[in-house]
Write a structure and sequence with these properties.
- There is one protein chain.
- The protein is an alpha+beta fold and 210 residues long.
- The chain has 2 domains: 164 residues, 2-Layer Sandwich (BirA Bifunctional Protein, domain 2); 38 residues, SH3 type barrels.
- Helix content is 22%, strand content 30%.
- Strand 5 and strand 6 form a beta hairpin.
- The chain is globular and about 50 Å long.
- The termini are far apart.
- The protein binds biotinyl-5-AMP.
- Biotinyl-5-AMP (BT5) binds next to helix 1, strand 3, strand 6 and strand 7.
Length: 210
């Protein structure tokens, strides 16, 4: 069931408060306390897309979500890239982001996309800046269909699909206490980076393009 609401603190928080069925979801016109990862804020003014859905817990789920969003954008002629694990970038700026939270045996996946809202942040972009618009309910239907299909695919296939949209491989990146060059996405979904000592490092945390 899709729950539609005009205002809420956070669509992810709302779903965590109920023991909902797989693929139950909520969309809100705005959020008063939209959340990013690690306690960061997600600017959520009216005009944006704020959606959360209950999904099965699968190993590469954050990557599957990123691919699904990028595919829908491509089908709407928007050339989007995914910055591992699942920032959605267009023209090097952040169009959207995904927040996956483990909830018992399920995952709550929250998706924010800037549509007609113009975020105040410097490195952000919205669909109307690009001259595009997407129908929100159409987006939800396509998104859920893509997620269901992706559940049937092998990990190897999912990683291969991710590489179509990836913007990090071969790039120099930095993280909290180091820097290096991105080598690949490992089969378990972690980022493999080579640092200046030629060691391979597997990252499960945030990296920044240099
Ligand atoms: C994310 O976090 O990118 C995940 C965002 C998920 C938001 C959705 S909306 C529906 C659902 N309900 C929620 O409460 N959350 C989810 P992270 O990678 O931590 O990025 C957060 C950073 O992105 C912030 O620190 C800002 O720098 C930047 N940011 C915040 N709002 C933005 C926006 N509207 N557009 C672009 N960048 C933004």
């Amino acid at each position: 069931m899709i729950n539609v609401i005009d205002n809420i603190n956070s669509t992810n928080t709302w779903l965590t408060q109920f023991n909902l069925e797989l693929y139950d979801s909520i969309i809100s016109l705005k959020q008063s306390e939209g959340r990013g990862r690690q306690g960061r804020l997600w600017e959520s003014y009216e005009g944006g897309f704020y959606y959360s859905v209950v999904l099965p817990n699968k190993k590469l789920l954050p990557i599957i979500v990123g691919i699904s969003v990028a595919e829908i954008l491509y089908e709407n002629r928007i050339i989007a890239k995914v910055k591992w694990p699942n920032d959605i970038l267009v023209e090097g700026k952040k169009l959207g982001g995904v927040l996956c939270q483990l909830q018992g045996e399920k995952v709550i996946a929250g998706l924010g996309i800037n549509m007609t809202n113009s975020p105040s942040l410097a490195k952000s972009i919205c669909l109307s800046d690009l001259g595009f618009s997407i129908d929100k309910l159409d987006f939800i239907n396509k998104f859920n269909e893509k997620i269901r299909n992706a559940m049937e695919h092998s990990d190897e296939y999912i990683i291969k699909q991710f590489l179509i949209y990836d913007c990090l491989i071969g790039e120099h990146v930095s993280w909290k206490d180091g820097n290096g060059q991105v080598v690949k996405i490992a089969e378990d979904g972690r980022l493999v980076v080579r640092d200046s000592f030629d060691e391979l490092i597997f990252l499960t945390e945030e990296v920044h393009l240099q």
